[in-house]
# Entry
Amino acid sequence: MLSAIVPRRPLPILLLAGTLLVLQTAGAWCADAKPMQAGKADAQAAFAKQAASVPPASGPGPRIAGCYIWSGRADETYKPFFQWELRLAGGTASATGLSIRVVTLGTDRKPLVSGPWKVLGTIASGASRDIDYKLNCPNFPAYQVEFTWKDGKDAALGWDKVSLPVMLSELSGTSFLVSLNQNADYSDSAHTAAVSWTLWNIGAQPAHDVVQTVRFLDDKGKEVAKADYKPEKGEIAAGLNKEEKFTARKIPAFSVISVATKLTDAGTLSSLDQGSFTGAKDVEIAKVHVDGKQLKARVRNGTGAALSAVVVSITLQSRDGKPVKHYDLTVGKLAADEERDVSADLTGVGSWSGYEVAWRNDAGAATAAAP
# Structure
């Protein structure tokens, strides 16, 4: 699970709940609605990238199959706003009398601003429907899209502005960890970084032996140091909502921090926030999850240049960090900003309790690694 923050002292970058993000701003409202058109065009591109991450319908209720959020300083009422571009997908049965609303959340998961209900009518089983939802509100660390229809209700929780929100109905039998509201204070003289973030377990089950790694990155997205931290002694209760903090020592100057959650058993792997791309100028590997006998992930080329021979390495580890199984997965050509799915076969693999990922370009470009 990747999270990105900046120290309080330097950079005017907007960061939210797990992802380094430069927020697309629509600017002041204008009569020709050009910002609206641009937002919808960008949404279609985002939906296409997210399509591979959408799970099949597991119940009768509708779900979110695409999400893109943009903002403006002022609308026609001269108030700041955020707009959600959403792609809804029908469940295993038609939903009649469907309405939705968006509620922004604070770090305590309590509502900040609750929008009005928007009536949508009926969405058929397996159907797809694109809608938008505008809400006048200040910035927020998380949000919830609430659904109600004739035969039920549900909600999807989002903790950053670029990832798909997760349907809460799918988390009744599992844990799901989210880190948000990250902060860091750096001491130049002591070379220490006081790091804090809010940790949520939005699932209904506890998570065990959890370790989080803070990676300290320079202004080019390269790692200069890292430090491990075991929140709540590794045992994360269902429904946990707590600020975590520690001080990392012997840390050189840095610009950005990313927080990754190390997994200690394969059962937990499928129930964690699968990670979001931070936008770093690097090759990033995220959305790591187990699907049956497959270990799957997604790779993004953020270097700004095309790479001709990318190889993704995944090393499964024992509880004490020793290698159990190593995979080299050939991606091949990867254009600038392109994303690609990779997978490894877990058949016959013995007990393992964590993993690390890395990449290389066999044509000779720089190599980077991330936990």
In short: The mean pLDDT is 80. DSSP finds two helices and 25 strands in the chain. The two ends are 9 Å apart (CA to CA).
